């Protein structure tokens, strides 16, 4: 199957950044149970399901009370029930070498303040839970795109209408259709992963070898944890999807100014996922300058860079990554949670690293500060950078939708 999705493989690194991780024949992580993991997993499935009943009841109770009280202790219990018994946070310096300073096993940090910005890689809805625990009261700066720009479901329905000759009719071949056996040729691996070709139609040709129209970000909205979870795994929301009464700021500067100058009563920082959409955690998507397009001269105090990496999936530990969704993200998140609670070991693995830098540590006067931040993220998480852009995920989701028909 991976070959059929090679269109979305980065030519410079050879990494496919959207496909959900699956169990490899030689998978190894602290969840792994050895070469006979599949047999042990089958044996322990009834035990996992029994534990799942207990975990789901307790987790539902803690989550419900958390929604009312916003207690970080309750959110920590939710993460514990999901499987993250330990949340070790490694603090690293902002030096060139990225030297580790210390490790805090508990992972509890309270030094982020109003006017700070938290920047993190993004591969799962669990990222939001972890950041909300590490930075109590945090809000998420979510990009907003034009109406219909990220609509995958419409394309799916139109595709079905073209392929069916009325109710009960036979499916007719689609022009330029793609069968299940269609092979997508991987572009020349010698191409530079950071090179872009832009034509007169504003189409961006990325390192995947396919032409994708860049989707503009028309603004940012600030969402709480529960509201932000709705849009994880798919494309960014439009104003219509956000609903009436949701304020959309023209840019990230305006959103930061709103939080920093006291218009908001919140004393917590803002979180931003510069990759915009979720990847599978194997590499970083190409982070466009517009994704970090704020002017930190006056609006930003400190930047907290956080990297989150989950353990590899095994027969007894399905992946924590949630890279593919659609407009009904709540349903998909619930399905993912069911697999975690009822068909998984009660212990999961995550690696969290954190760096705090001030605007005086960066070349603020130049655009190069954004490159510095991205480079820090890459080295901290040991993730390669790719030339694949976030808006290419729309084509990926369209392909997924067409294969599910």
Automatic annotation (TrEMBL):
Signal peptide: none annotated. The chain crosses the membrane at residues 47-67, 73-92. Residues 188-203 have a biased composition (Low complexity). Residues 162-211 are annotated as: Disordered. It comes from Melanopsichium pennsylvanicum. Residues 178-187 have a biased composition (Polar residues). GO terms for biological process: lipid metabolic process. Keywords: Acyltransferase, Lipid metabolism, Membrane, Transferase, Transmembrane, Transmembrane helix. It comes from the Eukaryota. The lineage of its organism: Eukaryota, Fungi, Dikarya, Basidiomycota, Ustilaginomycotina. This is Phospholipid/glycerol acyltransferase domain-containing protein. GO terms for molecular function: acyltransferase activity.
